[in-house]
Amino acid sequence: MGKYEELHQLVSSFEADFRKFYEKQNKAAGTRVRKHMGDLKKFAQQVRQEVQEIKQNMKEEGK
């Protein structure tokens, strides 16, 4: 479950900036929120690729 823990830590690290932006309307925090979301997108794409590779290997081993 290493990837799940990584995801959880990544999302948890965004909390302060989300609160600053949405609750206090801090513009600089909004910029950081956008960066965090980009990082999340990159992480998600890496996980998607890894899952696809694992599935492909499972399929090849099943032959």
Strand count, sense and closure of the main sheet?
none
Instruction: Specify the helix fraction band.
Output: over 70%
SSE succession: HHH
The low-confidence runs, each spanning 5 or more residues with pLDDT under 50, are none
Which range does the strand content fall in?
Answer: under 5%
What is the domain tally? 1
Radius of gyration: 17 Å
What is this structure's SSE topology?
Elements lengths: L1 H11 L2 H10 L2 H35 L2
Overview features:
63 residues, mainly alpha, 3 helices, 0% strand
Summarize the structure.
With 63 residues, the chain is mainly α. The chain contains 3 helices and no strands.
What does this structure look like?
The chain is elongated. α1 packs antiparallel against α3 and α2 crosses α3. It starts with a helix and ends with a helix. With 63 residues, the protein is mostly helical. It contains three helices and no strands. The protein has one domain. The longest helix has 35 residues. Helices cover 89% and strands 0% of the residues. The model has no long low-confidence stretch (mean pLDDT 94).
